[in-house]
Design brief:
The complex is a heterotrimer. Chain A is built from eight helices and nine strands. Chain A has helices spanning 49-57, 92-102, 107-120, 136-147, 166-181, 193-199, 217-223, 227-236; strands at 5-16, 21-33, 38-42, 64-69, 77-80, 154-158, 185-189, 202-207, 210-216. The longest helix of chain A is centred in the C-terminal third of the chain and has 16 residues, at 166-181. In chain A, the strands form two sheets. Chain A has a six-stranded mixed beta sheet, with helices on both faces. A three-stranded antiparallel beta sheet of chain A has the order 2-1-4. By secondary structure, chain B is mostly helical. In chain B, 81% of the residues lie in helices and 0% in strands. Chain B is built from ten helices and no strands. The radius of gyration of chain B is 20 Å and the shape is globular. By secondary structure, chain C is an all-alpha fold. In chain C, α7 (129-141) packs across α10 (181-193). Classes of the chains: A alpha/beta, B mainly alpha, C mainly alpha. Chains in contact: A-B, B-C. Chain A binds chain B through residues 14, 54, 57-61, 73-75, 77-79, 81, 84-87, 89-90, 94, 98-99, 101-104, 146, 150, 156, and chain B through 2-3, 5-7, 9-10, 13-14, 17-18, 80-91, 253-254.
């Protein structure tokens, strides 16, 4: 079976500063995300999680190695960036309409899909307010909505629970579970290990630009009493 | 094509809703109306003064709006990280650049059209001296600014927004003096200098080939053929510059 | 409450100080009659679209410069340079030539005025205004007996150009007739009045007032021929200006 994401020997080096100093971000990442996985990509800050996702999406080019997606292309991928910022002069409805148009949906299908998504993330009442008036939680919801506008097979979410109140967190978890039940593959980064424990089927823990451990959540819990203690053991080893 | 249209519409919305734009346009209309005062001290040449200085105001403010908005278009998306939302979808870099440019063309058409109509009405009502050539002159200013917008977008893919706007204004000034550079190529005794001058002459858009305002104030008669060829030249220039901007932007990572 | 009142008072006091300062500035010292005027060559290389704007700006400066100095120190040292610049940058700007020509007379340079109009006619060979003004200047400021002939030739030329009023040829004929120097002068100052701007009109009225009879009836008789060489509204306006102060 073709993995949903297959990353092999991924290296990424960037040049920063006036003197173009080389900084190595990824040092050979090997990672497989299976179809219909709810995959948690974990690691301390600066481990290279966001960079791995950006290379997978084509926002960055790998220095070495490869990324294969099991879907035909980005038209089948949905992405929620970390701390999302959208076009604050647009209303929620206008913004989702814009995203739908980028996928080539025709006018009537666009309208239908936008209303569906607004209902799904609970933003029907705020749909006509400009995004600059949205709270962080509302922006997060609109972010999830725009990631799902094309009904993607592969969904990448970077810190999807950030800024959400408990009600919002329950709703997002429900969305992720529903996506999993409909056969989609989800990969998300999160620092909230309780959510990872609740939602994920498999996880990878990154450290200093490499994957330090990958496997099923149950395998991790077999080696440590809690996911948190397992995580600490891997990243401090 | 859908993506280009979507980005163009979004850019138009973004720029036309910008409050700074509204302030600049109001200021421009005040300056155009200032031509009334100049006309009153011109001993009977009110029509000419209003048209000439009105078109200078349209050019000046059109340039400010075009350069400062164009410089921020790409830069803002990168700075505010909305590029992640865009390029995680099936949007090519070329569609992004074209969509941004076309959206800004729409905004500039509204801005310049508004200023042009205002000037026309003012000249018609006050000096009874308005003619269609005034609107043709505004259209030609618009075409000139298309080239400058394309150049500014190109510079914005290379560096900061401020640098892009400064360079955009420099290219506008250089474009007005294009015929001087041509003279340099002919006067130079050194083959290398002549070749370099020629390259500069070709690279800078020729904004002075057709006398935009002089025709309106009766200093020259414009040939439609000349205007047509010049417009086609500037549009071809826009295509080349946007292609270069796309090539540069393709290399960018976010 | 007290603090707010204090802040308001302070702001009002500052506003008052700003207005008072501006209101008490002394009047500007008279501008120097010598101003810097770049040569036309400096601007010739400028973009064609902006040459006319520069010409217009200098034209306005010329008008203001003339108005300021003709009522003040009567020195128009920089006027020739300004006139040259404006007409070089905007060769079809007819009014600039005509106004500048009169202004150059006041600057004591009728030779430059004549040369300017000749230059204007070369750039605008189909504009009858130029030969008409050249005729006026040739007669009014020329020397010797030939001035009548030269002026008549210019009026003849003006009559041949499209759009010229029908009395151009009549003026030529009048000039070629013998005698009647004062009568000819009245008609020609009438032509100057037709320039339309405030200064030309004032000039025409003041020159005519000098040569016309003081007696009202005689004055009216002397002015009657104007109606044959000027449009009626303009002739009425000129006659009214010259009969101002006389009992109706």
């Amino acid at each position: 079976m073709v993995p949903a994401i297959q990353i092999t020997g991924l290296h990424k080096t960037v040049r920063v500063g006036f003197r173009r100093r080389e900084v190595v971000i990824l040092r050979g990442v090997d990672l497989d995300v299976h179809e219909n996985d709810v995959f948690g990509l974990l690691g301390p800050n600066g481990a290279g999680k966001t960079t791995t996702v950006k290379v997978a999406l084509g926002l960055m080019r790998p220095t070495a190695g490869s990324v294969q997606l099991g879907v035909p292309g980005v038209s089948q991928v949905g992405y929620l960036p970390e701390n999302p910022y959208f076009y604050d002069y647009l209303s929620g409805r206008e913004f989702l309409g814009f995203c739908a148009r980028l996928f080539g949906l025709d006018a009537s299908r666009r309208r239908e899909r936008v209303e569906e998504l607004l209902r799904e993330v609970g933003l029907e009442r705020a749909a006509d307010a400009q995004l600059r008036k949205y709270s962080k939680g509302m922006l997060q919801r609109v972010g999830i909505a725009q990631a799902l506008v094309n009904d993607p097979q592969l969904v990448l979410l970077d810190e999807p629970m950030t800024g959400l109140d408990p009600v919002g967190r329950v709703e997002v978890k429900r969305i992720i579970q529903r996506l999993h039940e409909t056969g989609k593959t989800i990969m998300f980064n999160s620092h909230i290990l309780s959510d990872v424990h609740e939602l994920c089927t498999r996880i990878a823990i990154m450290r200093e630009g490499r994957v330090a451990w990958t496997g099923a959540v149950s395998e991790a819990l077999a080696e440590a009493p809690t996911l948190e203690s397992f995580f600490m053991r891997v990243v401090t080893a | 094509m859908n993506q280009v249209v979507a980005i163009a519409v979004n850019t138009f919305r973004e720029t036309i809703r910008d409050r700074v734009l509204a302030v600049i346009v109001v200021f421009a209309l005040v300056m155009i109306a200032g031509g009334l005062w100049l006309g009153s001290i011109s001993l009977g040449e009110q029509g000419r003064m209003m048209k000439d200085f009105g078109l200078v105001a349209v050019t000046f403010f059109g340039l400010i709006v075009a350069v400062f908005i164009a410089a921020g278009l790409v830069h803002k998306e990168v700075e505010k990280r909305t590029v992640f939302v865009l390029f995680s979808k099936p949007v090519s870099r070329a569609a992004f650049i074209c969509g941004k440019f076309i959206g800004l063309c729409g905004t500039m058409a509204v801005v310049l059209g508004g200023m042009g109509v205002f000037l026309f009405l003012l000249v018609w009502i006050v000096a009874h001296d308005a003619s269609g050539m005034l609107l043709v002159a505004v259209a030609m200013i618009y075409v000139q600014l298309l080239a400058i917008m394309a150049v500014t977008i190109f510079f914005s893919t290379l560096g900061s927004a401020i640098l892009a706007s400064v360079l955009g204004i420099c290219v506008f000034v250089a474009g007005q003096l294009s015929h001087n550079v041509l003279s340099l190529t002919r006067l130079s005794h050194n083959a290398v200098t002549a070749a370099l001058s020629w390259i500069v002459y070709v690279v800078i858009p020729n904004l002075s080939a057709v006398d935009v305002k002089a025709g309106v104030v009766g200093e020259s008669t414009l040939s439609w053929g000349e205007i047509g060829v010049w417009t086609a030249y500037l549009l071809a220039y826009v295509v080349v510059v946007l292609a270069l901007a796309t090539l540069v932007f393709r290399r960018k990572e976010f | 409450m007290l603090r707010r009142a204090l802040v308001v008072l302070v702001v009002l006091a500052c506003a008052g100080a700003v207005v008072a300062y501006q209101a008490t500035r002394p009047a500007r010292a008279p501008a120097s009659p010598k101003v810097f005027v770049p040569s036309p060559e400096f601007f010739q290389d400028f973009s064609p679209s902006f040459r006319t704007s520069i010409a217009d700006a200098y034209y306005l400066m010329l008008v203001q410069y003339y108005g300021e100095h003709i009522q003040g120190d009567k020195r128009l040292d920089s006027l020739p340079a300004m006139a040259t610049l404006v007409t070089a940058l905007s060769p079809h700007f007819t009014r600039a030539y005509l106004f500048s020509a009169f202004a150059l007379i006041d600057a004591g340079r009728p030779d430059l005025a004549y040369a300017l109009l000749e230059k204007g006619f070369k750039a605008n060979p189909n504009d009858w205004h130029f030969p008409a003004y050249l005729a006026f200047f040739a007669y009014s400021y020329g020397q010797g007996k030939e001035k009548d002939l030269v002026a008549a030739q210019w009026y003849q030329k003006a009559a041949e150009l499209p759009g010229s009023p029908e009395y151009m040829a009549r003026l030529a004929g009048i000039l070629l007739a013998r005698g009647g120097a004062k009568e000819k002068a009245v008609l020609l100052w009438g032509q100057a009045f037709l320039a339309g701007d405030k200064y030309s009109r004032q000039r025409a009225v003041s020159e005519l007032a000098k040569i016309l009879p003081k007696d009202k009836e005689a004055r009216m008789r002397a002015l009657a021929p104007l109606y044959g060489t000027m449009p009626k509204p303009e002739a009425d306006a000129l006659v009214a200006a010259l009969l101002k102060g006389y009992a109706q």
